[in-house]
C-alpha cells in the first residue's frame, strides 16, 4: 500500500508528522517510540537567540485539552545547529525545522544560518509570534504580514516552505491564499487557539502569561473546519493539525482535504501516538481496500441536503 | 536504566488514610530500575477528560511490583481510586532525577507534608539498608489525613493539633533541630510548594544540605513539552525542568513556585 | 448576600441566565429545575417567520463538547407572541428574548412586533446569522455590520439591548466596541465556534450542514479569553457564555470581567445546571466572605511576571 | 406521569450476549410511570468526555426497579459496563412517547434488530397481560450477539446463518407473513435505521399498521435542544423530535434517516 507523499523535495514515508513544540528536538522521545516509523519530525520553534521561555506556570489542563505558554523556550539557532541537528541526521525520517521570530529579519537570519546545513528537509514557518513592529499583533493575524514573511523567505531557500497558520482569525483561507500567492509550498494549521483559565481560589490566571494556546482533542472540530475551509481555497497542500489522537482522527483531516497531519498534544499523553496513528491509518486503508492513502485526501462526501449553510445555531 | 511505557497489572489497592490510597501494580522493568525520588506517569482514563497523565512518586518497590500513594483530590485520582485488581494501567517510568542518597552522610531527616509522604517509604528503606539513621517527620492537616502503615517511627505534626505537634511540619523540623545534638543532617523534603519554600529558607539559613522533591504542572513527564519549568536560583530568568532535571533538586539550585525573591 | 444585578431596566435576582437555544422557550425544563431560581431565561432565537430548521443529523458529540446545526428552528415571531410568551409571564424570572434575522429589516420586524408585548425584560441580538446582503458572512463577523444592526435597533426600543457576539473573528473586542458605540447596553459572548466532524466510515460530515457550532466545556478557555479581551475594551457590561458547568466555571468568567453568565450546553446534560451554578456561586461567596457577588467582577489578580505576553507557544 | 431526574441505585449488571449487558437500578418513580417504548437518559461519566447523557429504552420493570439493555460500542457503554452494584447512576425518565399498544388488535409482531431488542421485554409482557398473541422476531449479526434470556419464544435471523433463518430480520418478517394466515397484525419494530427503513417499506406496501422506535443523535432528551429531528413524511421539510414526539412513531408519519425519497 502507498502511504508516502511529497511536497516539492520533501519526501515523507507516511502522512504523520510530529507537531512543533510537542516532540522536543526529536530525540527525547526515542526510548518510547520508533522514530524511523514517523513520516517526519517538526522541531520545536528555533529562534535567532536562545530563549529561556516564560515563568511558570506554563501549562494548565482544561476539558479535553491544555493551555500552554511555553514562551518559545529553545536553545537558539547556533546551539540548534551545533548540538541538536547532528543528532537528527540519520534517524531515518524527514526533518522539518520550525522557525519563529519577532521581526522579519529574525526569520531570515535563522533560515540563512541553517539553509546550508545537512539534514534539513523543509521549513515550517511559525507566524503566530507577535510582530514587534505591529505592536504585538501576530504576523499570522493579517494577510499582509503573513504574505510579507513568506515573500521575504521564499527567495532565500530552495527547500519547501510550509507556512503554519494561526486559527485566531476571521478567515484563515484568505491568509492561506496570500501565502500561496507568495510562493509557499504548503500551509499547516492549526496552531493553538487563544484561551485562558483562572484559579478561582487565588483569583489568578492559571498561566503566568494570563492567556495561552489551547490544543488537544477539544480543538479538533475547530481545526477540521479551518482545514476544510483552507483546502477548498488554495491549491497547495494543506497539513492538518489539532487534537489528533487516533488514526480515525487523522483520516478525518485527510477527508476534509489535508495531505498530511501532525500530532501534537497527544504525544504528551503517549509519545508513541504519532507512530500508532500512522499504523492505524494503514490498517484502515487495508480494511477499506484503499491502495494509496492519497485516495482519502479531500474524499469527503457532501450532498446537497437542502440545509442552509452558515446558519449554525 | 531507561524508562518504559508499559501495561501494568494492578495487584492491590488499599486505603491508608481518609483520602489516601496505596496502589500496587506489577511492572518488572520499572521496579528493577526505580530509584527513590523517581516517579511514574500514569494514564488515568482511556478517554480525554482528564487528558494528561498524572505523575506519582514511586513510594515503594516489592520485587517486580511498585506501589504509589495518592490523595483523592480531583479527576485523575477519583478514577484511580476505582481501579480494581486485575485491571491494567498504562504506566511510564521510572522518570526523573532521584534523591541523591548515596553520599556519605549519617543522619537523614525526611520532611513530608501531606501527600508529600509518597516518595519516602522507598527512600526510608534504602537509607536503612545503607545503615543510616533516618528521622521521618510527617505533617498533615489533621490526624485522619495521616497515611498509616507506610513509614515507621515517624513523628507527626498536624495543623489542628489532633495528633503530634500542633503546627506545620517545618515547625516540627525546627523544633527537632533545636532539641537534638547539632550533627549536620541531610534533609529530604516533599510536600506542597509553600511548605518547601518555608523549609528551604530554614535549611539554607542553617547551611544544612537539603534535597527537595518538587511538583509542578506537567504535560509529558519526559522533557518534550517544556511545561514543567521551575526557576533556577543562580541564574536570572533561567529554568530547570521538573521532569528531567528534577523532581529532586538541591535546595540551593531552584526556587519553588510561590517563593518570592529567591 | 447580594447576588442581583441590573443592566438598565433589566433586573435579575442572580447572575446566571440560560443561554439561547439551550433551554427551549423556558417551560420545557420546568419539571426538572426551579425556574424562579434562575437569574433569567434567554429564549431560543426568534425569527420573523417560522423555521423548521436543518435536516438531521443536527448534532454531533465531540471531546468535551458538541457541534450543532439546528438551523434556528423556531416557531416564528407570531406564534412566539401568541403561544410561548404568555407562558413565560409570571414564572418569576427575567425574560430576555433573543432575536435573529438574515437582513436588518428582519431584526427590526421581530423587535417591533414584540416591543409592546408584556413580559419581555430585554433583547439579546444574535448577530451570528448570515447576512444575505453580504453573501453569507455573519453580521457579527465585521465591525461595520455589527454596528449597523445595533444602530438600526437602538432607537426602536426602550428595553436593554444585549448584542451577542460571535467568537469566530480576529478581534472580538473591536466588534464589541463598535456595538457599544452604537448604544448597545451590554454584549454577550461567546456564541459557538465554527467546527466540524466527519464519519470516517461513510466519509460524510457528521452534520447535514457540514460545519456547525461548537459549544460545551471544550470551548471554555476560548470563551474566557474572549470575555477577558472584551471586558477590558468596553465599559458596558459583558455577559460571559461558553462551557459553564459548575459554579467555579461561572466565577472564572466573573473574575475576568463578566457581569453575569449564561449556561448553555450543560443544561442538556442536566436541566438543573443553571440553578445549581447560581446556588454554588452563593455558597462560594459565603465561604470566601464575599458580601456582594459584584466584588468578583473583574477581580482577576494579574502580576507582572516578566512574561512576554502574546508569545503563546 | 412526568419524568424525574434521580440518583438510582444500581442493583445488578449481567452480561446477556457477547456484547450486551442488562443493567438494573432502583428508581421507584420511573418504574411506576414507565410505559413500554419509553426511555431513560443516563449520565455515564462525572467528567466531560463523554459529555452528554445516553438514551436507553426501558427494557423491563420489576417492582421499583428498571432494567436497560445496552450493547458495548463506545465511550458511554464501556463506562456503563464497569458500573457496580451499589453505585448510583444519574437517570432521567421515563421519557418520550411510548408504543401505542392499548388498541384493539389481536396479534403483535415484534421486530428487533441487534440491540433494538431493548424495548421489547417490557412491551412483550404488557401485551401478554392484555391477552394478546405476540410473535417476537429477533435479528442479529451472528448467534453470539443474540441477547439471551430477555424474551421468550423468539424466532431468530442471523446475517451469517449461525442461528435461525439466514438473513435479516426483515426477511424473517416477510417469510413469517407469507407462511402464516393473513390476519392483519400490529407490528412494533426497533433497530438500526436501515432496518427500520426496509421494514417500513415492507409494512406500508402491505397496509400493515406499524410502530417504529427510532434512534437519533440526542443532546437533551427533553425537547430543549431540537437536535433529534426526524423528517415527517406528510409535510415537506417539517420535522418531528425523536425525544418528545417519539421515540415511537406510526411508521406512516416519519422517514427514518437514510431512507431516500420517503
Ligand atoms: C513529580 C510529581 C510527583 C507527584 N507525586 C504524587 C504522589 O506521589 N501522590 C499524589 O497524590 N500526587 C502526586 N503528584 C500530583 C499528581 O500528579 C496529580 O497532580 C494529583 O494526583 C492531582 O490529580 P487529579 O487528577 O486527581 O486532580 P485534578 O483534577 O488535576 O485537580 C484537582 C484539584 O486539585 C487541585 N490541583 C491539583 N493539581 C494542582 C496543581 N498542580 N496546581 C494547583 N492546583 C492543583 C486543583 O485545585 C483541582 O481542583 C505528583 C506530581 C508531580 C509533578
Ligand atoms: C431513544 C433512544 C433509545 C436508545 N436505546 C438504546 C438501548 O436500549 N440500548 C442501547 O444499547 N442503545 C440505545 N440507544 C443508543 C444509545 O443512546 C447510545 O447512542 C449508544 O449506547 C452508544 O453510546 P456509546 O457512548 O457507547 O457510544 P459512542 O462513544 O457515542 O459511539 C461509539 C461508536 O458507535 C457509533 N455510533 C454510536 N451512536 C451513533 C450514532 N447515533 N450515529 C452514528 N454512529 C454512532 C460510532 O461509530 C461510534 O464510533 C438509544 C438511543 C436513543 C436515541
Ligand atoms: C506545549 C506546546 C508547545 C508548542 N510549541 C510550538 C512551537 O514552538 N511552535 C509552533 O509552531 N507550534 C507550537 N505548538 C503548537 C503545536 O505544534 C500544534 O500546532 C497545536 O498544539 C495543535 O495541535 P494538537 O492539538 O495536536 O496539540 C505547541 C503546542 C504545545 C501544546
Ligand atoms: C443546540 C444549540 C442551539 C443554540 N441555539 C442558539 C440560538 O438559537 N441563538 C443563539 O444566539 N445562540 C444559540 N446557541 C449558542 C448558545 O446560546 C451559547 O452561546 C453557546 O452554546 C456557548 O455556550 P455553552 O458552551 O454553554 O453551550 C445554541 C447552542 C446550542 C448548543
Ligand atoms: S513535563 Fe513536559 S517537559 Fe517536563
Ligand atoms: S434530544 Fe434535545 S430536543 Fe430531542
Give a verbal description of the structure.
The complex is a heterotetramer, with two copies of chain A (313 residues) and two copies of chain B (262 residues). Chain A is of the alpha/beta class. Chain A has one domain (5-53, 71-193, 216-296): TIM Barrel. Chain A is 28% helix and 19% strand. Chain A has helices at residues 76-88, 104-114, 143-153, 172-181, 220-233, 247-255, 266-269, 273-288; strands at 5-7, 10-12, 16-18, 40-42, 59-62, 65-68, 94-99, 122-126, 161-164, 186-189, 193-196, 198-199, 204-205, 211-215, 238-241, 260-263. In chain A, the strands form four sheets. Chain A has an eight-stranded parallel beta barrel, surrounded by five helices. In chain A, strands 5-6-14-11 form a four-stranded antiparallel beta sheet, with no helix packed on it. In chain A, strand 9 (161-164), helix 4 and strand 10 form a beta-alpha-beta unit. In chain A, helix 4 packs across helix 5 and helix 6 (247-255) crosses helix 8. Chain A is globular, with a radius of gyration of 19 Å. The model of chain A is unreliable at 308-313 (pLDDT under 50). Chain B has 262 residues and is an alpha/beta fold. Helices cover 18% and strands 33% of the residues of chain B. Chain B has helices spanning 28-33, 75-80, 120-129, 169-179, 193-206, and strands at residues 4-15, 20-26, 39-42, 54-57, 60-62, 65-71, 88-95, 107-113, 133-140, 155-158, 165-166, 186-190, 210-213, 229-232, 239-241, 248-250, 254-255. In chain B, the strands form three sheets. Chain B has a seven-stranded antiparallel beta sheet with strand order 4-3-7-1-2-6-5. Chain B has a seven-stranded mixed beta sheet with strand order 11-10-9-8-12-13-16, sandwiched between helices. In chain B, helix 4 packs parallel to helix 5 (193-206). Chain B binds chain C through residues 47-49, 237, and chain C through 63-64, 217, 306. Residues 39, 50, 54-57, 68-71, 73-77, 115, 118, 215-218, 247 of chain B line the site of one flavin-adenine dinucleotide. The site of one FE2/S2 (inorganic) cluster has 13 residues of chain B, from loops.
Amino acid at each position: 500500500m502507498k502511504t508516502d507523499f511529497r511536497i516539492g523535495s520533501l519526501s515523507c514515508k507516511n502522512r504523520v508528522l510530529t507537531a512543533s513544540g510537542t516532540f522536543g528536538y526529536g530525540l527525547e522521545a526515542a526510548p518510547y517510540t520508533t522514530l524511523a516509523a514517523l513520516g517526519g519530525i517538526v522541531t520545536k520553534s528555533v529562534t535567532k537567540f536562545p530563549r529561556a521561555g516564560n515563568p511558570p506556570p506554563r501549562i494548565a489542563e482544561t476539558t479535553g485539552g491544555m493551555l500552554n505558554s511555553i514562551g518559545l523556550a529553545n536553545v537558539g539557532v547556533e546551539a540548534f545547529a551545533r548540538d541538536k541537528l547532528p543528532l537528527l541526521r540519520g534517524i531515518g525520517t524527514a526533518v522539518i525545522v520550525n522557525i519563529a521570530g519577532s521581526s522579519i529579519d529574525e526569520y531570515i537570519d535563522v533560515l540563512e544560518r541553517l539553509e546550508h546545513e545537512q539534514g534539513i528537509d523543509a521549513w515550517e514557518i511559525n507566524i503566530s509570534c507577535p510582530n514587534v513592529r505591529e505592536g504585538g499583533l501576530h504576523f499570522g493575524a493579517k494577510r499582509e504580514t503573513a504574505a510579507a514573511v513568506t515573500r521575504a523567505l521564499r527567495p532565500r531557500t530552495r527547500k519547501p516552505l510550509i507556512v503554519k497558520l494561526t486559527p485566531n482569525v476571521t478567515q484563515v483561507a484568505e491568509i492561506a491564499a496570500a501565502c500561496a500567492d507568495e510562493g509557499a509550498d504548503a500551509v499547516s494549521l492549526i496552531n493553538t487557539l487563544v484561551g485562558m483559565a483562572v484559579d478561582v481560589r487565588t483569583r489568578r490566571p492559571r498561566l503566568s502569561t494570563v492567556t495561552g494556546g489551547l490544543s488537544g482533542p477539544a480543538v479538533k472540530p475547530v481545526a477540521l473546519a479551518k482545514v476544510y475551509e483552507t483546502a477548498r481555497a488554495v491549491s497547495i497542500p494543506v497539513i492538518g493539525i489539532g487534537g489528533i489522537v487516533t488514526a480515525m482522527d487523522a483520516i478525518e483531516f485527510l477527508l476534509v482535504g489535508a495531505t498530511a497531519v501532525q500530532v501534537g498534544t497527544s504525544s504528551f499523553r503517549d509519545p508513541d501516538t504519532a507512530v500508532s496513528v500512522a499504523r492505524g491509518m494503514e490498517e484502515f486503508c487495508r480494511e477499506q481496500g484503499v491502495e494509496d492513502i492519497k485516495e482519502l485526501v479531500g474524499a469527503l462526501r457532501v450532498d446537497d441536503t437542502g440545509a442552509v449553510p452558515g446558519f449554525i445555531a | 536504566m531507561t524508562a518504559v511505557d508499559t501495561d501494568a497489572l494492578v495487584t492491590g489497592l488499599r486505603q491508608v488514610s481518609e483520602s489516601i490510597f496505596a496502589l500496587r501494580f506489577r511492572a518488572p522493568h520499572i521496579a528493577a530500575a526505580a530509584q527513590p525520588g523517581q516517579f511514574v506517569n500514569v494514564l488515568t482514563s482511556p478517554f480525554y477528560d482528564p487528558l494528561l497523565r498524572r505523575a506519582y512518586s514511586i513510594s515503594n518497590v516489592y520485587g517486580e511490583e511498585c506501589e504509589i500513594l495518592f490523595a483523592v483530590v480531583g479527576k485523575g485520582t477519583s478514577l484511580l481510586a476505582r481501579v480494581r485488581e486485575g485491571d491494567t494501567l498504562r504506566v511510564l517510568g521510572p522518570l526523573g532525577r532521584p534523591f541523591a542518597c548515596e553520599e556519605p552522610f549519617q543522619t537523614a531527616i525526611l520532611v513530608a507534608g501531606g501527600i508529600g509522604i509518597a516518595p519516602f517509604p522507598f527512600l526510608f528503606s534504602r537509607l536503612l539498608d545503607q545503615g543510616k539513621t533516618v528521622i521521618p517527620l510527617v505533617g498533615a492537616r489533621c490526624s485522619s489525613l495521616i497515611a498509616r502503615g507506610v513509614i515507621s517511627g515517624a513523628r507527626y505534626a498536624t495543623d489542628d493539633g489532633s495528633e503530634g505537634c500542633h503546627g506545620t511540619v517545618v515547625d516540627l523540623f525546627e523544633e527537632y533541630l533545636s532539641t537534638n545534638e547539632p550533627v549536620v543532617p541531610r534533609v529530604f523534603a516533599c510536600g506542597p510548594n509553600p511548605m518547601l519554600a518555608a523549609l528551604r529558607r530554614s535549611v539554607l539559613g542553617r547551611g544544612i544540605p537539603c534535597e527537595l522533591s518538587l511538583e509542578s504542572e506537567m504535560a509529558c513527564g519526559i522533557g518534550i513539552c517544556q511545561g514543567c519549568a521551575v526557576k533556577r536560583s543562580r541564574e536570572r530568568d533561567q529554568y530547570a525542568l521538573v521532569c528531567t532535571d528534577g523532581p529532586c533538586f538541591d535546595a540551593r539550585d531552584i526556587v519553588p513556585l510561590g517563593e518570592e525573591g529567591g
